[in-house]
Design goal:
This protein is of the alpha/beta class. The chain has two domains: 132 residues, Rossmann fold; 182 residues, Rossmann fold (3-Layer(aba) Sandwich). The chain is 41% helix and 12% strand. It has a six-stranded parallel sheet with strand order 7-6-5-8-9-10, with helices on both faces. A four-stranded parallel sheet has the order 1-2-3-4, covered by helices on one side. Helix 6 crosses helix 11.
């Protein structure tokens, strides 16, 4: 996905072989170590060719070979400035390891400082969001997506790849949800055929007169800002982007952390819940609890308003600029 998006933006992309070593079986470990060794060689070649002044790391095991190559003896005469960005509240293992190579660490929230107790070069930047996201007014957003102005809007998204458990829970709840709200459902491409079939079934059912309130999309990119701006409530996973995008719009959330990975999403969700900006629902509880939680919130506009204000208080719309300034050497930052 990253390769496709970077190339679409007209930016040169070069891949680095890499593989994880934490939590893999003994059979996979030799292959993965070989991939990392290849990645180290590839990273050194890129550094010799490109000669960067700054290297920007955002995590993932692919960053390991580049971090090691950037600190190799052959690079000592022209050492790059290494800037690290921690998108989630809790840094992943790769980011914790990379921290020792970093000249500067930027984090999404003050709470991340606790994971780097010995480091002083930490700057709380916030989570960077695309400028075009914040360009939508609610009226313009709802008009673009074909939504009514006077009916609440529930946004459902599982991230770029979708979330099957959320998709199926929402589809099952549509008969009860549509009388009270419009639903903008971004399903991801993997479940799109199932969502289309459910929409056709809805059209031919006794609820067919409310089918126009159900707006399903496999994926939104250029209009994701419209979906966020139009919504009164969102049901979503708790990936790092929730720390930036939902606060930007003051959008109250029901967060369902992805259960089959390390605890990053759980920590993100609990962080927002502790600030009164979100409710946390476990993935296993979706079939029985999602409709109850969402319908209670939609019927309580005062609570939604309070949650939205709490979410908005966490916004840092200048995050991208704060991080960008750290990419320049200190002398150049002072001059600008």
């Amino acid at each position: 996905m990253e390769e496709e998006l970077v190339k679409q933006a007209g930016v040169n992309f070069q891949a680095i072989p890499a593989a994880g070593i934490h939590g893999v079986g003994l059979r996979a470990l030799p292959h993965n170590l070989l991939q990392l060794a290849r990645g180290y060689g590839r990273a050194r070649h890129i550094l010799r060719q490109f000669r960067p002044e700054t290297i920007f790391f955002t995590g993932g095991y692919v960053a390991g070979p580049m971090a090691l190559a950037s600190r190799s003896p052959a690079r000592s005469a022209a050492r790059s400035r290494n800037v690290l960005y921690v998108p989630d509240i809790e840094p992943g293992l790769a980011l914790k390891a990379l921290a020792r190579f970093a000249d500067c660490i930027t984090v999404s929230d003050e709470a991340s400082r606790a994971y780097f107790p010995a480091r002083r070069n930490i700057i709380v930047s916030g989570y960077p969001t695309r400028p075009e996201l914040g360009s939508w007014s609610r009226h313009q957003a709802r008009a673009t997506l074909g939504l009514e102005n006077n009916t609440p809007v529930l946004l459902v998204t599982g991230g770029s790849k979708g979330a099957r458990s959320i998709n199926r829970a929402i589809l099952a709840a549509l008969p009860e949800l549509l009388p009270m709200a419009q639903v903008v459902h971004i399903s991801g491409k993997l479940d799109w055929a199932e969502v289309q079939a459910a929409r056709e079934e809805l059209l031919s059912s006794p609820m067919g007169h409310l089918a126009a309130r159900y707006h399903a999309f496999a994926y939104l990119h250029d209009q994701m800002g419209a979906a966020l701006a139009s919504a009164d409530l969102v049901v979503a996973r708790a990936g790092a982007s929730t720390l930036g995008e939902f606060p930007l719009f003051g959008l109250p959330a029901v967060l369902v952390p992805y259960p089959y990975a390390w605890r990053y999403q759980q920590v993100n969700a609990q962080h927002l819940a502790q600030h009164g900006a979100a409710l946390v629902l476990e993935n296993a509880s979706l079939p029985t609890q999602l409709l109850l939680v969402v319908s209670d919130l939609l019927r309580d506009p005062t609570r939604l308003e309070q949650m939205g204000a709490s979410m908005r208080s966490l916004a840092r719309p200048e995050a991208a600029q704060v991080i960008a300034r750290q990419l320049y050497p200190p002398a150049e930052r002072g001059a600008s």
